[in-house]
Amino acid sequence: MSITTSAVPQRKSIQLWQSFQHFFALCKPRVTSLIVFTAMIGMFLATPGMVPLGLLLAASLGIAMASGAAAAFNCLIEQQIDARMARTRGRPLPQGQVSSLQTVIFASVVGGLGLAMLYFWVNPLTMWLTLATFVGYAVIYTIFLKPATPLNIVIGGASGAMPPILGWAAVTNVVSPESLILFLIIFAWTPPHFWALALYRRAEYAKVGMPMLPVTHGEEFTRLHILLYTVILFAVALMPFGHGMSGVIYLVASLILNVWFMAYAIALYRHYSDGLAQRMFRFSIIYLSLLFAALLVDHYWYFTW
Ligand code: HEM
Ligand SMILES: CC(C)=CCC/C(C)=C/CC/C(C)=C/COP(=O)(O)OP(=O)(O)O
């Protein structure tokens, strides 16, 4: 008797935990984490001192919730396509772990709460910019650009590049030239980041009819464009130093990371292999994380000493 009564609540709590995991997965948590990280760097760089803790928490959580909700809408809209690609068929919607209606309710509640938090506890400017970013990714990129043009990720990349602007606006209530420089870094980084993945996943994108660059213009053309965007990224990544936003620590870190990224782009351009494209994609994430971490270390190093 005691075994059956204790087994029921235990099963319930396991089910609850599994549901939480499914909804959490809809938010693309690893991408959202890096997005929030870049937004937080925008907040820290916007002030010489420490960001007030309450503001830091409210802005980070609000941006995380809006970003997670945007990702959930993307999963909802693309569920049929996701079901046909090996990389994405394990997601909660194609697996039937959550329904479309549940996803709409979840994304609306989480996104709405995130935006409300930004409006009331941060400032209206940050809320409006985050809403524009949300629409840019969930609607303009996902519904219109992605199925229509190989420039989808170049134009749509503007949404992914917004978080430092959001973070900066959260602290200062303005869109500053410095935050635009951080935007440009992510904007120039997005094409090599995505096209490296699209190269080794090109057969899947072709199968589902997504007009990604390697599908529409071929592998060699894509490799050349990865290289060209990496050159642009190199120049843009030096702008924080050139503009006087950061010092020698950032300059050295940036030079090392950019030479490394460039080495990948050149190697990929000269001799293509799926393995190399995969390594470059993985490195792109390390690159952006470390570049933004270097901005932070540099900022507080000079502040502290
Ligand atoms: C339009 C712009 C972008 C496109 C098209 C894009 C595309 C992708 C794709 C297709 C993946 C693979 C996901 C998977 O295998 O499930 C990925 C992974 C990733 N992206 Fe992006 N991305 C973009 C912008 C960004 C931005 C702005 C960030 C962060 C600042 C970011 C961070 C990441 C991270 C951290 C991963 C690894 C996720 C994991 O390991 O599960 N991406 N991206
Ligand atoms: C409100 C706010 C801060 C929003 C941030 C916008 C956002 C979530 C940008 C990230 C871009 C992203 C996850 C692209 C993945 O490409 P994809 O969706 O084409 O990849 P998939 O094929 O894996 O679905």
From TrEMBL:
Major place of localization?
membrane
* Record-linked InterPro entries: Protohaem_IX_farnesylTrfase, UbiA_prenyltransferase, UbiA_prenylTrfase_CS, UbiA_sf
Among its keywords, does the record have Membrane? yes
Q: Where in the cell is it found?
A: Cell membrane
EC annotation? 2.5.1.141
Instruction: List residues traversing the bilayer.
Output: 31-51, 57-77, 98-121, 127-144, 151-174, 180-200, 221-242, 248-269, 281-302
Q: Domain of life of the organism in this record? A: Bacteria
Report how it sits in the membrane: Multi-pass membrane protein
Q: Which GO molecular function, any one, fits this protein according to its record?
A: protoheme IX farnesyltransferase activity
Q: Which cellular components does GO assign to this protein?
A: plasma membrane
* Catalysed reactions, semicolon-separated: heme b + (2E,6E)-farnesyl diphosphate + H2O = Fe(II)-heme o + diphosphate
Which keywords, in A-to-Z order, does the entry hold? Cell membrane, Heme biosynthesis, Membrane, Transferase, Transmembrane, Transmembrane helix
Pfam families in UniProt: UbiA (PF01040)
Query: What biological-process terms (Gene Ontology) are attached?
Result: heme O biosynthetic process
Pathway field of the UniProt record reads: Porphyrin-containing compound metabolism; heme O biosynthesis; heme O from protoheme: step 1/1
Question: What family does the database annotate?
Answer: Belongs to the UbiA prenyltransferase family. Protoheme IX farnesyltransferase subfamily.
* Role played: Converts heme B (protoheme IX) to heme O by substitution of the vinyl group on carbon 2 of heme B porphyrin ring with a hydroxyethyl farnesyl side group.
What's in the misc comment field?
Answer: Carbon 2 of the heme B porphyrin ring is defined according to the Fischer nomenclature.
- State the name under which the record lists this protein: Protoheme IX farnesyltransferase
